[in-house]
Amino acid sequence: MGKIWAIAQRELKAYFVSPVAYVVAALFMLISGYLFSLILYHSREASMRGLFSNLNVVFLLITPALTMRLLAEERQRGTIEMLMTSPVTDLQIVLGKYLSSLLYLAFLLALTVIFPLTLAWLGQPDWMTLLTGYLAIYLLGASFMAIGLLTSSWTNNQVIAAVATFALSLLIWLLPSASAIVGQPLGQVFEYVSLLQHQENLLRGVIDTSDVIYYLSFIVGSLFLTIRSVEVYRWR
Questions:
Q1: d(Cα 20, Cα 126) in Å, to the nearest integer?
Q2: What is the pLDDT along the chain (236 residues), one digit of tens a residue?
Q3: Which residue among 3, 84, 145, 190 has its CA within the 20 to 30 Å range from the CA of 117?
Q4: Is cis: bond before 116, omega within 30 of 0?
C-alpha cells in the first residue's frame, strides 16, 4: 500500500504543479455554480438532483483532460521504463495513478460543499438524497476516470488519449439510445451496461446494492484491462 500511495502522491503533485488542476477546478466551479443558481431559481426546491444530472455532462467533458497524461505522458517522456524497472508491480502503478485521479475527483466535489450549505440556509433539504446524489456522481466520475486511465495506457499521445476517452465514454453513455434500434433482448443489455442507467435510484435517495456493485465492477474491469495493457507494453 505504501508504494501505491507514493505513486498517488507523485501524480497529485504533478496535477497541482501544472495549471491544468487549477483551470479545471475553476471551470468546474464556474459551470456548477451557474447551473446550481439556475436550477435553484427555476425549481424553487431545496434539492441538488438537477445539478447532479447536469454534472454528468461536465464530468464527461473534463475527464479526458484529467486522465490523458496519466500513462501517455510517461510513455512520451520515456519515464515509463524507469517506473517499470523500479521495485513496483504493474498493479501498483495502475492503482497508484488511479488513486490520484480519485483524490482529485473528491477535491472537485468537496469544492461544491457550499451548495448544500446554501440549501440548508434557504430551506430544509433531504440530506439522505444529497448524500446518495454525491455518491452517484462520484461513482460515475470514478468510472469515467477508469476509462481515461485505460485509454491513456494505449498511446503515448495525450491528445489521442483524451479523444479516445471522450469517444468511449460517450459511446457507453449513449448505449440506451441504441436499444430501440437493436431490439430485445440485446437492447436490455445495452440499457444495463449504460452508466447513467444505474444513477436513477441513487439520485432519488435509494441505495440499491446492485447499482453500486455495477459501478465497482465496471471500475475493476477497466483497471484490469489497464493492467493487461501495461503488461503488454512491458513485454514489447
A1: 34
A2: 778 888 888 888 888 887 888 888 999 999 998 888 887 777 776 678 888 888 888 999 899 988 888 888 777 776 766 766 777 888 888 899 999 999 999 999 999 998 888 888 877 877 888 899 999 999 999 999 999 999 988 888 888 989 999 999 888 888 777 666 666 776 677 777 777 778 888 888 888 888 899 999 999 999 999 998 887 766 66
A3: 145
A4: no
Which amino acid type is present at position 71? Answer: L
Place of cell 459501478: 215
Sign (positive or negative) of CA dihedral 108, 18, 94, 192: positive
Q: Count CB-CB contacts under 10 A for residue 137.
A: 26
- Which 3-state string (H, E, C) describes the chain? CHHHHHHHHHHHHHHHHCCHHHHHHHHHHHHHHHHHHHHHHHHCCCCCHHHHHHHHHHHHHHHHHHHCCCCHHHHHHCHHHHHHHCCCCHHHHHHHHHHHHHHHHHHHHHHCCHHHHHHHHHCCCCHHHHHHHHHHHHHHHHHHHHHHHHHHCCCCCHHHHHHHHHHHHHHHHCHHHHHHHHCCCHHHHHHHHCCHHHHHHHHCCCCCHHHHHHHHHHHHHHHHHHHHHHHHHHCC
